[in-house]
Amino acid sequence: MIMFGDMLSPFSLLVLLFLALVSAAGGQSYSNITRGTTLTAGGSPSSWFSPSGEFAFGFFPADSNSTSFLFAVWFAATSPQSVVWYANPRSPTLPPHATVLLTSDGRLSLRDETGTERWGAGSGGAVAASILDTGNLVLAGATGVLWESFDEPTDTLLPGQVLPAGASLRSRLTDANFSEGRFSLMAQADGNLVLYPLALPTGNRYDPYWSTDTSGAGNELVYNADGSIYYSLGNGTAVPINSGLNYPPESFYQRASLDSDGVFRQYVYPKNSSAGGGLTWNVVARRPEDICHALVSHGPGSGVCGYNSYCSSDGGQNQINCICPPEYSFIDQNNTYLGCEQSFVQRCELYEQSSFTLIPVDNLDWPYQDYEHYTNVDERQCGDMCLQDCFCAVSIFWRGGRECWKKKLPLTHGRIGSYVNRRAFIKVSRDNSSVSVPVPVPVPFEGNHDRRRSIGVAGAVLLGSSGFLNLILIGTVISMIVCSRRNKSEKQRSVTELNLRTFSYKELEQATKEFKEELGRGGFGVVFKGELPSSSGSTKLVAVKRLDRLGKMIDDDSEKEFTNEVRSIGQTHHKNLVKLIGYCHEESQRLLVYEFMSRGSLQEFLFGGERPPWEQRASIAMGIARGLMYLHEECSVPIIHCDIKPKNVLLDDNLVARIADFGLAKLLRTDQTRTNTGIRGTRGYVAPEWFKSMAITKKVDVYSFGVMLLEIVSCRRNLETETETEEVAEDAVLVYWAYDCYRVGRLDLLLRDGEDDRERMERFVTVAIWCLQEDPGLRPSISAVVRMLEGGVPVAVPPDPSTDIQSLRQ
């Protein structure tokens, strides 16, 4: 809804004329919004655009269902659109029908649906509000600009903006939650530019993790229009922040944001494909280079990630992962900064050393908060000393000094990486060592006092009775407990306790409108589009997978397949994996409910129309590799997917790759490296060992990834046949044609994109050929694949893959 007040007075017209002259002098034009103008959240229109249309301000949906809004400024011409400023960061979200009004006395007033003011700007006297082509929202009065959003930044700076002494940026809580987060970039009054972790909810500062180490008066952080960012010192010198990068404003959109993970990153977005880089936001600079390495403190606070978790960064530092140790799980999957909790009980009054075991993890450490330190010990002693101690949760061993540290919960400042050079021994329950199942830990309440006393009295009666009676009673109790545990269904033990939502079949039948809209089919079922009601009264899109094929299997196999899939997905949490929301298990009906991926599958993206930009494809390839690395090497129980292909990679709103369909995945116990099983997978992506009665390892996924990587690079299907039943000619097989092009130095036949990133494209092809080696021992691990794709390690010349053509015809 939009309304206009009275006609402008001559005085107001003079003010607007003055502003127009000022803007012309500065090379910037205004789009004026006069007194009495109102915008309404969810109305039409609900925003105003800058003169060029590159920026907008107004009400921006804070969630995919438009059930809440921000009053914000954002890039309107990019995909995804990026919010660069928003009002009232302490409580930024607003319900539908909230309004913003330029009042009759010249204030900008933000009000909720009841008319209560939630935020305001200006002290009065403004006759117009404008969004400039710089992204600056201004209030203009008789004397010029009375207020501007550039003076009250949130988490982002734009070209032309300055962060003066005394000002700061504050990160969001999460990427999707715009409330004030856990990190701050402060231009201090003493002249130092500092990154701080913060305590929530008070916001007090912990030890800094990066700074310019400068001092003096008049220092300020400057973001030039050409893309250079530097800390200008009062003495006339400058400290570069982005090493002199140059991104002309006529060719690139730009922003610099303190992201929710605490990293200050500079992003650019090409305005057209000729500028290079693909039409997406690309990170070109960051501070610090590696926050996992930088943010480690003797003081309080959890560190980059939450308590009892640890920080992992990829080689490019564009993604920070927070990971729970084996047999721990996130307290809240949507707010991982809250940390992880044990999936078992460890209490001193019930402690038995034989009930626990140790899981070693290399290059992992929580560096401080030790309570015991030993020297001149070996690894076995270091682990044993933790097992013998009921307080100990983790022991850390350093080979170089034969030193050992014992740690108890909560663990802080965790990090994993080659620079750590430690081995962690994580104590877990033997009963839980094969699968992580959260067990509620009893919490003493005042109301439990009488109950504990009653138990004590009952115990005294038993002890005062005859030994025979005691044995009978104790035996009966033990039998009841054992029987109770045995009678628990697999669903209760390994699904319900994973904090997944349980649905009835009727609920999902209604959500999918009786399974009306089919999204796709796989080897074990059909996926349908559904809508679930949310607490706000709106609906949320989901994908419901009905495991039809399981009903045809015998009960034991069916139960095992269902349980394996629920376990494997329910315990995996990574940016590049599809999230499982819940499940249904009623008699023969078994369904899984996933988050909905709006952009469909990678297969549709690659082969459904125009050739996607190279940068988007490269980013997707990296995402898939990182997702596989998580499954293979970072899960407490490693997972082999067994059916990696474009159809099983889905894309979210931001074209982030999400690995899907764990229906064929097989869990490996922590003491296993391989498994023998029947042939799984899809024609064209299946590794040769499936057909040779060889042991199946994680290298089958590496092979399938190699095939898919060639498809991503070339935008050509692996098998160029009209139907699935046709014979495959050798020149129709992408992996052979790609190697022939590589061998004769004609990769130009394969790579049809521009020359700007040819070196990276050729590296991707070389890595793919390594992945396609017939001998699994010659294939790299997926973590090595990630490092090679990132350019962190050199890629040697691969041998001829020599894959058996008959494998591809099965």
Automatic annotation (TrEMBL):
Pfam families assigned: B_lectin, Pkinase
SUPFAM superfamilies reported for this sequence: alpha-D-mannose-specific plant lectins, Protein kinase-like (PK-like)
Enzyme Commission number, as recorded: 2.7.11.1
The UniProt record lists the keyword tRNA processing: no
Superkingdom of the source species: Eukaryota
InterPro entries given in the database record: Bulb-type_lectin_dom, Bulb-type_lectin_dom_sf, G-type_lectin_kinases/EP1-like, Kinase-like_dom_sf, Prot_kinase_dom, Protein_kinase_ATP_BS, Ser/Thr_kinase_AS, SRK-like_kinase
Record localization: Membrane
Similarity comment text for this entry: Belongs to the protein kinase superfamily. Ser/Thr protein kinase family.
Name this protein carries in UniProt: Receptor-like serine/threonine-protein kinase
Organism: Zingiber officinale (Ginger)
